[in-house]
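User: What would this chain look like folded?
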Amino acid sequence: MAKLVYGLSQSLDGYVDHMKLGPPPPAAFRHFIELVRGLTGVIYGRHMYEIMRYWDEDLPDWDAEDRDFAAAWRSKPKWVVSRSLKSAGPNATIVGDDFEKVIRRLKAELAGEIQVGGPVLAQSLTEAGLIDEYRLYLRPVVLGGGAPFFAGARSPLHLVASDVIADDLIRLTYVPAESRDAPGGLRSEIQTEPPPQIGAI
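Assistant: Here's the prediction, encoded as structure tokens.
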């Protein structure tokens, strides 16, 4: 069974405006290249898919890492949830009505990780109980407004990992609190050793 993961870069105040955030630093970009290479596929809403189509065709000012990312992205199957989109680019399938049923089938039939792109789509899949993991990539900027990472309320989450990816980019990984992958949440991550006895220091 595949795992559905929603992850995006965001500001410290929780907004995901990619134009205002700007490109990631080179070391972080390499992380995202390797991340995409390891995916089983990606699910987008229409808006996010149209943004990502930037990578469909090479541009003359791209460097080697841009081309590496584009090659990895193009190689992955993509499912675009939209009732208004009439056609999609290479390696992409439009999912219209009953998209929850389609995505449940993808989870059941595939293995590995399927990434979810876009806050509105992620909220719909959250409400359907389909998101297995949330990855918040925190950039050291404050935007003051925009589209939030979470498009609506959801039940509590457990922090299962925190990692410095590169430079000032930090990744926080959460799973639903009711998930069997989070038996102790943050507390189990922190309390890895028993406290010292008095007098033993």
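Confidence is low (pLDDT under 50) at residues 182-201. If you want, I can go into more detail on any region.
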